[in-house]
Specification:
Elements lengths: L7 H7 L21 H9 L3 E5 L2 E7 L6 E5 L8 H18 L6 E7 L5 H18 L3
Parallel strand pairs: 3-4
Antiparallel strand pairs: 1-2, 2-4
Length: 137
């Protein structure tokens, strides 16, 4: 029989992983690009473009006081819905961890080719570095 700690938070703290402050790094609905008009405004008139191998980033300033993200994983590139959802989940998690450092922009991330999770995370890191260092708030 395997002993488990009573809550997942206790497991995380016990292993000294960097997930101690979950409340401050949430991912709310207000941080997602949901409307077609939001995506269209970023696609039609982006202020910045950046490409990191499998990911292409378009972003546009917003006046909302927070960063928002929209993720596009085409069915043509990743056929299985479970895989598409997994890719989106990885990107959302990366965004959630760095969103306080990002400027107030609407970001659209578009996956260009098939990729493993490790490459996807590295591409996200390059994009976040671009956003934090090249764009002044």
């Amino acid at each position: 029989m395997v002993e488990k700690l009573s809550t997942p938070d206790e497991q995380r703290v016990g292993k000294n992983l960097p997930f101690k402050e979950l409340e401050s790094a949430s991912f709310s609905k207000s941080e997602k690009l949901l409307l077609k008009s939001d995506f269209t405004s970023v696609f039609n008139n982006p202020h910045w473009r950046f490409s990191a191998s499998p990911l292409r980033m378009l972003c546009r300033r917003n006046e909302l006081g927070l960063s928002r993200i929209g993720i596009i994983v085409p069915k043509k590139i990743v056929r299985l819905a479970t895989s598409r959802n997994r890719h989106k989940r990885v990107i959302k998690e990366q965004f959630r961890l760095v969103k306080q450092c990002l400027p107030n922009v609407d970001i659209v991330l578009l996956l260009n080719k098939r990729v493993c999770e490790k490459e996807l995370m590295q591409s996200c890191e390059r994009i976040w570095n671009f956003l934090t260092h090249e764009i002044d708030d």
